[in-house]
Amino acid sequence: MDTKEIQRLLDYIAKSPLAEVSIETEGLKVSVKKNSAVAPVVTVAAAAPAPVTAAPAAAPAAAAAAPVAAPVSDNLYTVKSPMIGTFYRAAGPDKDNFVEVGSEIAPGKTLCMIEAMKLFNEIDSEVSGKIVQILVDNASPVEFDQPLFVVEKA
Fold it and tell me: Is 90 among the domain residues?
């Protein structure tokens, strides 16, 4: 199971009412437990072959914090998180932020980084324009498809 498959599994579990899922395949064991107050806990370890099991939730998980509503307009574009992870505005604590409100951007410009499973993924712009709103605080957890930035398209 590669990181993309694990990420898809985490995305599926985050949207499902399941509270816990365990998957065992040849040489790999993945166990995910969802807690409504915190992000999912994932453990991965080597294991012997076994069938896939999913434990049903004892009670439906409470809804996560409501995402920030982004302005809607033909000229505004919302950059959304492509994965679950931790949002960072800079490459390091002593580095400058990639973008600020008012920053001009172009396709390919790095907007932020999202750490997922100890990997730092640069999130690049797909449009040209100007950052009008940053919707997430630095070092905050983000969900798949959560709005991160609002861009006024050029």
Answer: yes
Tokens of 35: 């807690």
3-state secondary structure the chain: CCHHHHHHHHHHHHHCCCCEEEEEECCEEEEEEEECCEEEEEEEECCCCCCCEEECCCCCCCCCCCCCCCCCCCCEEEEECCCCEEEECECCCCCCECCCCCCEECCCCEEEEEEECCEEEEEECCCCEEEEEECCCCCEEECCCCEEEEEEEC
CA dist., res. 123 & res. 126, Å (int): 9
Supply the pTM of this predicted model.
0.54
How is residue 46 written in tokens? 């080597």
pLDDT at 73 over 50: yes
80 and 13 within one domain = no
pLDDT tens for each residue of 5-18: 777 777 777 777 77
CATH number at residue 84: 2.40.50.100
| Cα-based torsion angle of the residue sequence 12, 13, 14, 19 in order, rounded to the nearest 10 degrees | 160
